[in-house]
Amino acid sequence: MSRWGSSFFQYSTLIWKEMRWNSLILMALTLITTVLDGFGLALFLPLIETMDADQTSRSPVTNWFHLVYSSLGIPFELPYIIAGIVCIYGLKGCMLFCEVAFAGWQKSRLAFSFRTRFVESFSNSNFSFLAKQDSGVLSHIAGGELTDSVNSIFLFVSSASCLLTVFTYIIVASFVNPFFTLVTILLTSMSALILRVLNRKAKLLSASLVKQQSSFQGFVTENLQNAKYLLATGTIQKTLIKLRIIVKSLSSTMFKLSILKALVKGLREPILVTSLLALVGFHSTFSEAPVTSVIFILLLVYRSLTNFMAYQVSWQTFLATSSSIDLVTSKIAELEKNVESNGATRITEVPSTYELLGVSYKYGDFEALKGVNLKIDTGQLVAILGESGSGKSTLVNILTGLFVPTSGQVLVDGVDLRELDKKSYRRHLGYITQESVIFNDSMKNNIMLWTEGQVPESIIKKTALDFGHNREGGMDGPVGDRGGLISGGQRQRIGLARELFRNIDLLILDEATSSLDHKTADVIRKYLRKMKGSKTIVLVTHNVNHALDADSVLILDKGAVVESGNLQLLMANKASTFSQYLNSVKPE
Ligand code: ADP
Ligand code: MG
């Protein structure tokens, strides 16, 4: 199949999948509009012939209309012919309105479907897959590609309607004079050949434009995230070198694409006029048909050619933007394929034990966890200790169900985590990491995650967030992009306040107590001491001093458990790894 044919087939299948019968309704509306236009044009022949008193021979079209009028019992006279034309064009206007409005409705439906599918598949996809995604590409898709892809699909639809219109006019014309029709097809195919070369080039260019645009956006985002370092060290100048290269190639691709567009625009009229003149020449040399039917055919041919040109333009624009359809549909399909698996068992009560049984986890070939066993009872404070890179965060990701163990099991009240409904399990989990999770919204929304109402005063006190009352806007005042308007410690305390508000049962702190200011460290320590016995806490840290409040400890080294057990017993045993760790560091 030719490249045109395979593109046409590929996108028609996509449209059928997305729009089903609505796509056929749209085509039917186009067809009806075109046929009505054909009839309207045809009725001008009897109009001219009736007005021209000298005319003796009547064209076959006029004879056909005469038959239709008399079978309807309407006199075939000037006023009635005029009324007929007015009626047909009125009807055509209505159909055109329906066609455009229906297309608009379908377009907004498709945009809605793409957006929701993207957002839903994104929120339901599994973490191992999501962690490998380029956030620049994903935000580029959300930012513009989703809209562009829908526009592009509708450019395809309008290309298809133009082609349908071309064929309809040709069929109508061939009823009147097949020779003329043949010449029309020859002429249109000739112009198609010229424009085909340009179309191929446009497709290639547009694909590289999309790639360059997302790498530009990705790099700018990265620079913004690292702005503090880049500005303070002057290294921002270095990133400018890379940015300039990207921007330069982006502009040159855009320029080449606009030259292609200009070429197509410039070629349109010369091709059109030459074709029409060729038809006139053909008629005056070979045909003896009455002049009125020649005018009619020329009108049809003219209409057909303008539609063919419109088809070329929208097909070219479609090709230039179609890579956004490919990008969006393939990304949505990829996201949908990587949806996190979920079990059916719902957790309705607070779990009383969490257990890791011989859990191993591999990143590719690298084994980050090796046969880890760990049992956590409700109300216990368990400290997970280990050097950086020993596998602590991997263990936490397994406990939250973000990673599925390569071998071994995670049991919650004796039920394998794989069989649990993850939402019902995670409602019980709180999670605080070293990097605070902050939204560019108010303090209140950061704590209550858009729940209605006011932040409970008790939570504000416990987390020392009273300063929020004195800020501009109080608790409704903004915290800035990634919390830029508040301090690091305040960001971290907002994270704790959020988990207090969620009223969770198992709180995981992954290095959340490392490098904290005194106030925040104090708030967290007080919380941990107060909650001992009522909430379950997993405290992940590389600092052995932070583990002193724990009931039990687990020490990891290169993914394997070196030691685990009751904290007091390990401290009493001077030969234990924990005691040795403790002796090797200064008390805080
Ligand atoms: P910790 O939290 O104890 O510092 P991690 O659990 O983050 O350690 O990492 C354990 C090991 O796994 C490290 O050697 C780290 O380099 C590796 N690792 C972590 N994440 C990935 C990943 N996505 N792909 C490959 N290796 C990884
Ligand atoms: Mg870590």
Provide the succession of SSEs: HHHHHHHHHHHEEEHEEHEHHHHEHEEEHH
CATH topology of the largest domain: ABC transporter transmembrane region fold
Most strands sheet? 6 strands, mixed
CATH superfamily of the largest domain: ABC transporter type 1, transmembrane domain
Distance between the termini: 74 Å
Q: What Rg, in angstroms, do the CA atoms define?
A: 36 Å
Q: What is the CATH architecture assignment of the largest domain? A: Up-down Bundle
- Tell me the domain tally: 2
Q: Helix fraction?
A: 55-70%
Output the CATH class name of the largest domain: Mainly Alpha
Q: What structural category characterises the helix and strand content?
A: alpha/beta
| Shape, per Cα inertia axes | elongated
The poorly predicted ranges are none
Task: State the gist of this model.
By secondary structure, the protein is an alpha/beta fold. The protein contains 20 helices and ten strands. Helix 7 runs antiparallel to helix 11.
What does this protein structure show overall?
- The protein is an alpha/beta fold.
- It has two domains: 3-337, ABC transporter transmembrane region fold (Up-down Bundle); 353-584, 3-Layer(aba) Sandwich (Rossmann fold), CATH 3.40.50.
- It is built from 20 helices and ten strands.
- It has a six-stranded mixed sheet with strand order 6-7-8-3-9-10, sandwiched between helices. Strands 2-1-4-5 form a four-stranded antiparallel sheet, covered by helices on one side.
- β9 (552-557) and β10 form a beta hairpin.
- The protein starts with a helix and ends with a helix.
- 34% of the residues are buried.
- The model has no long low-confidence stretch (mean pLDDT 88).
- The structure holds adenosine-5'-diphosphate and magnesium ion.
- Magnesium ion binds next to α12.
- Residues 392-393, 510-511 line the site of magnesium ion (MG).
